[in-house]
Fold these 3 entries.
Entry 1:
Amino acid sequence: MANPRDIIILPDKQLRLISKPVETITPEIRTLVDDMFQTMYDAPGIGLAAIQVAVPLRLITMDLSKKEGEKEPRVFINPEILASSDELSVYEEGCLSIPEYYEEVERPARVRVRFMDLEGKTREEDAEGLYATCIQHEIDHLNGVLFVDYLSKLKRDRVMKKFTKAAKLAAK
Ligand code: NI
């Protein structure tokens, strides 16, 4: 049985950690993956990095399937971007660690990504569209980068202030 875990929220400093590679796919890693899917589907969200449930490992869960369709759970272990297109595309992004905040972000439209799957097999894929945006957003999490880092200083300061204030109120 999977247990949903708590998602850490901005301005939690753990979101700025550099996550460490997964060395071996242990039963604990499989449990973490199950829990991350449960957490992501419950939220609901389309992508989740392990650091968002306070585990600093290079591990991502994703499901880009349509609501009505079959689930398409995907796991990315130690993912890396091998190449990025010069062409850019803009998507309105959100983040489960920055709830109810959405802004347009410009990123490479296509990327080639290498990762290990849950069977320990190394794979390479070309990503485009939502997949390209989502995998770049999630890999950023593994490096302590958030999508608000791509916004203007004015917008970023505003959102940081809002969430810092909310965290202070919640702590009282
Ligand atoms: Ni995110």
Entry 2:
Amino acid sequence: MNFHEYQAKQLFADYGIAVPAGRVARSPEEAVDAAKAIPGDLWVVKAQIHAGGRGKAGGVKLAKTLDEVREYAKAMLGTKMETYQSAGVALPIDSVLISEGTDIDKELYLSVLVDRGTQSITFIASSEGGVDIEQVAAETPEKIQTLNVNYVQGLQPYQTREMGFALGLDAKQTGQLGKIMLGLFKLFNEKDLALVELNPLAVLTNGNLAVLDGKVNSDDNASFRHADLVAMRDIRQEDETEVAASQHDLNYVTMDGNIGCMVNGAGLAMATMDVIKLNGGEPANFLDVGGGATKERVTEAFKLILSSDKVKAIFVNIFGGIVRNDVIAEGIIAAVKDVGVKVPVIVRLEGTKVEEGKKLLKESGLAIIAADDINDGARKAVEAVKQAA
Ligand code: GDP
Ligand code: MN
């Protein structure tokens, strides 16, 4: 689950990390009120969306007067913003963060994540912040500092000092960095986070460190014990189809292609996507209907695939072990009866109750293209898309 910057900064503050004074606003009037409550005469108006890259897209504006605060907030609120990090989707700007403006001397990068290679919570830092960190890592890897935290010892103060020196900070800034890192480490553990990113963590002209941006991502598998985090969820920032899928306990991820896939089992789903690509096609989604799929879940899954107008063919690939092919067939028939289907459907069924499943589909009168195996099905799906084009 992702969080807005204003929520991330609230979490940081809860863990004793100093953040610039700021308030969230949902209308231009609220934005002006927020600015009035923040000392100083420079403010930053920041679009709150679940994507970075806002600066380059016009979602971060420095305002020198209250009129400018109102103007920028008005221009952003109610619009949608696409950035180079929003995966081709324009996200709604429902709120803006009004933040205390600061004078930046230098921008650093600091993140915390779970490094699966070393099985440890890991800090990644760089003196080159404010930019695409992947680019820094690729072009100047020597400017990236990595700290794997020992699971038993936890983060030690001396390690934060080493990090400060490695980033070229002075003694006072290194002390401030230590407080930030120890706070982030506690937050990361207690809230079961998957990623925290401060980009930039800025050195200001007054010599202090300041947390100017915050991205937080939590581990969904731990959501059951973090009601406070779940309450912060903003589903308007999420993919509509994925939200609908999660309500039906379906493992669904939207992809870029045009061949919809309905598969049971995550491994088979990935294999199906691979084989589609091997045949020159592009999957429109990852979908695992699960081992214990009921007729209702299959119906919902099929409707989800049909809801996208990008889908030009559907490949149903079922290997029935626990799941029964007659149940799958009933689900498909029910979904098609409900919403209709205008694209070719290629079906490969194998395993438990396969003859019953095939018979049901045949008798339903649906125009279904039967496939013998995974490769045959993928090939026929790619062919069907070509013919439709
Ligand atoms: P992002 O583009 O979505 O990652 O949004 P950021 O919050 O990182 O803002 C983008 C850039 O705006 C930062 O790298 C800074 O250069 C600038 N910026 C953000 N906050 C401030 C601020 O308080 N003062 C100044 N002068 N610049 C800021
Ligand atoms: Mn940023």
Entry 3:
Amino acid sequence: MADERADEKQAQLEAVRVDDADTYLTTQQGVRVDHTDDALTAGARGPTLLEDFHAREKITHFDHERIPERVVHARGAGAYGHFQPYDGWLGEYTVAEFLTDPSVETPVFVRFSTVAGSRGSADTVRDVRGFATKFYTRQGNYDLVGNNIPVFFIQDGIKFPDFVHAVKPEPDNEIPQAQSAHDTFWDFVGLQAETMHMVMWLMSDRAIPRSYRMMQGFGVHTFRLVNANGEGTFVKFHWKPKLGTHSLVWDECQKIAGKDPDYNRRDLWDAIEAGDFPEWELGVQLVPEKDEFAFDFDLLDATKIIPEEQVPVRPVGRLVLDRNPDNFFAETEQVAFHTANVVPGIDFTNDPLLQARNFSYLDTQLIRLGGPNFAQIPVNRPIADVHTNQRDGYHQSRVNTGKQSYHKNTVGGGCPMVAGADHAAFTHYAEKVEGAKIRKRSDSFQDHYSQATLFWNSMSEPEREHIVAAFRFELGKVTQRHIRESAVARIGHVDHDLAVAVAEGIGVDPPKEETTNHGRSSPALSQLEAPTDTAATRKVAVLVADGVDGDGTRRAVELLRERGALPEVLAPHEGVVAAAQGDDVPVDRAINTMSSVLYDGVVVACGPDAVRTLAGDGYALHFVTEAYKHHKPVAGFGAGVDLLGAAGVLGSGSGGGDGVNVTKGVVTTSTAGDALPVEFADRLTDELAHHRCWSRETDGIPA
Ligand code: HDE
């Protein structure tokens, strides 16, 4: 049954797919075209004729190829996959079949995105990432339109245009692109205290993910599950990546933005093409309605998390992404998410941010996709049957038959008729509401700092250093002094020492009054709290040159592959490099077309001549030093260790000896050829699994 649903979605998409292979070029009217390289002219050098219907149609269509990009989250990447619950335990709380029936595999489309940049901006900017999932359930489409950060900048949706205007490029000169490091963003922060918790996350490593496959996702708002008895339970949704949560370092991000602006997109695409399907676990935090007021924050306030130590995240099921789209525009660009796309068993709360989103997402599709029929675009089509009395409008592609287009009717035999809850109709949760009509933020929304402090207190030492550096970088780009000062004043309410460290870096006075830190922490907030044990899909550059140890290189590559890593052989030139021993080694890429920032680790292969060549090559030396500087595992075997020495990354105690030595993420062995020890690959993959060697940060480059 589960397979049937997935097949059905696949068949639906295939039915509308246009495969251009082996077909004749035609006009849109289906007339075959004999020539498309020259316009119809009166004589070889004469004027172009108006009657050239093919040229006019071709150019007119081209003129209209662009549609408005999303006002936020313009840049993204998408993929298809499926979701399946592990078992039925959540059935006590919700009637949503796709969350509670383990025999049902629900097809999904997921779109990841950055927020502030335009469609053509770079992937590795400091920003929140969107994590939007469309579940094509049998009861209709459910969209979980989340982010990789569990809180938001503002509490009420009416502030969203203000916030987005502040973070987007400044209106007079449209600078800077895809960055929060500018005056208007920090002006907004300085004046809007509620931003502070999210700003802490934005300055943290969460805002520079290594991969879409290695980031968490959050529904952010408190939603409501509703069970068969109509009883509600508050819920927060979490996605946890199987590969662990990992980030880049800031210097690396800025370089990747130039070396490969599509870094995160490419990573997702390549992993799926290679069959390394990314996976996440869906988890929920549940809060019984009776406990609505049991917390020291308001569950309706989207600037707050529920600490996992207070309410554990309980696993529900598994998401797998296993198919890339066929056409970026048709699918990833035209997918239309909407927070109000809910199915029976899931309902809203009165979170004022969520309420505004329930208006905005439908409205934005009208302008972006040009009318009210966007749900008919293949990527948006439900697998559930659709029968409405809605008719006509731009881009109507459904040919409705019969005379009925109203309810109630007799002409259509009363169809389509309304269903009851027993026939899977959506019934709104009957929440009681009363109150005066007012414009006022609830008093329960007024604590803007406690959780920002909680986040800061929960960070490990390297994570804290990154936050300080990020604040200094961002505020260092702010040109107006009073904006720097008011930002520092805000930071002072989070943690005095943090504000002092930031103030020092940007040349303003620290806050005069010292606010007391409450001292509480939530260990689950640190990315380093749950280390991963897999090096799967980690990219490793293996540096070689003519004269390389062919046997050792082949063995290193094989051992790394067996452990799930993705080694690539890099040499000063493409083709093959001549081996001093064993077979010649095929080269995957020329060093100068790549960069250490595009890899998770680097190995320098043995071969005295090869190493001499590499040592004289600025690219190779820089490659190693830069990888080291970004705290990546660096390894060498045989004469390869000498290059690590030349690059200045061998500390005392590393290198030498027959065994395998690991010092601060530098893995070395003097053994080479077929004798290259398995332990060399084991230690290197351990280091890759740990992602980065953070202790280097405090200790610097070895003397
Ligand atoms: Fe969005 N947001 N948003 N947002 N959002 C859009 O919808 C909006 C918010 C998020 O891959 C837009 O189709 C308002 C929070 C994602 O297609 C727009 C408010 C969260 C995506 C819109 C918010 C998000 C969007 C732009 C404040 C995390 C990309 C294009 C009330 C929980 C979806 C579009 C995709 C996109 C409005 C706040 C996540 C304009 C008014 C909080 C992942 O409708």
